[in-house]
Design a protein that fits this description.
The protein starts with a helix and ends with a helix. It has about 170 residues and is mainly alpha-helical. It is globular and about 50 Å long.
Length: about 170
């Protein structure tokens, strides 16, 4: 009996992880674009906000870098993308199961809840070195824009997937 439950959980996690590759990529791109634009508005640098997550490898002082570089911007985006897929996996496990009854508005609400949860964990439960580092470059309103864009990316991927599934079953 227990082996069957474990197997079902493993299958469910695998399916969520596969869906998260798409929804996480969508959320990563949407939030990275918002991050870059907000960083430009708040501090005059498109790359600054994207450099923040590079603190995982180079330390917190390096995350303040504003210039674009492979060392900071590329590494920052890679860390951002990987954590986006991580958060998307959580979203997919909790909310992402294919469901014909979920409306686009419901998908947006689910994604907003997931994004808010990610923000709380990222900035209140995670040790400073492993936070996204966005705050080093953004004001509070811009943080909301970035996490909102993340939610939009999650929701958009789910909505498209739902529509494709409906089309394929008709």
């Amino acid at each position: 009996m227990h082996d069957n439950v474990r197997e079902q959980q493993s299958v469910r996690l695998g399916a969520a992880a596969r869906r998260a590759l798409c929804s996480g990529a969508s959320a990563s791109v949407c939030s990275a674009l918002a991050l870059s634009i907000c960083s430009r508005i708040d501090e005059g640098s498109y790359a600054g906000g994207l450099n923040g997550p590079s603190q995982w490898l180079w330390g917190q002082a390096q995350a303040y870098t504003r210039e674009a570089s492979l060392r900071h911007t590329a590494v920052g985006y890679i860390v951002h993308h990987l954590t986006s897929v991580f958060w998307a996996t959580s979203y997919e496990l909790i909310f992402g199961e294919p469901d014909r009854r979920k409306t686009p508005l419901r998908r947006c609400a689910d994604a907003a809840v997931s994004s808010a949860g990610a923000y709380v964990v990222d900035y209140y439960l995670t040790p400073p070195r492993f936070r996204p580092g966005f705050r080093k470059h953004l004001r509070t309103p811009s943080m909301y824009v970035v996490y909102g864009a993340f939610a939009l990316g999650l929701a958009a991927a789910s909505i498209v997937r739902d529509r494709n599934r409906r089309r394929n079953t008709q």
